[in-house]
Predict the 3D structure of the following.
Amino acid sequence: MLKNLEKIVVPRMRISDQIRDELKRMILEGELKRGVKLPTEEHLAGQLKVSKVSVREALRNLETDGLIEKRRGARGGSFVAHPGTEKMGEWVINYFRIGMITPEELVDFRQTLEPALVALAAERRTDKDLRAIKSVIDEIEKGIRRGKASTPKAVEFHRLIGEACHNRLISMVMEALVKVFEEILAKIPLTLEDAKYDLKHCKKIYGYLVQGRKKKAQDLMVDHFKTLAKIIERGKKSGRKRRRARSLGSP
């Protein structure tokens, strides 16, 4: 069974991958602290006795992984990154753009996730959280009075509920979801009536957060996402009609 084993060629790890893995280990184990500036490509290449091309490739991979960031200017260079939500948001948006995630799947995910989050937020919210949520609601209401529906503010309301859970992983997930939903709703804009209905939900949810009424907040959040699913479906139907009209040569 193993007689042809000697014919198998085991590929050697590329030098750039070895450099990347070692720098990654140093970052994850805390040997390289957040905000620390790495040596220049020339210095690293000379120290490791490798080509600048290998070092550049290793740094590019670390940047893609979100472990370092490159800054321009006189004080620029490669720095150990402060982990953020940007990469997670980019991944979700890219999956959405290439059609690997549909708006319906995202709504379904949020409809499963956010009722649990709003219940947790009702337990953990602080006065500061409530002030931030109320401020966004006030901004939404001002926009409606001017006859404008603010999609970014409507989505920000949900991000702040995630923040009120005081769990960093929840905050990261919600930040990523906010980014992709801003893109979805930019293509399916809220009508003024949608915005008024959404505002009514936001105000009620806020009231339940103030009172710490978990179950009421949960139930209302489920209802809220049923409405969102209808808005997205309506937007899709409208888009199909426009495409059909264009294909038939209608103005």
About this structure: The chain has a mean pLDDT of 85. Strands lie at 68-71, 77-80. The chain has ten helices and two strands. Residues 5 and 81 are 43 Å apart (CA to CA).
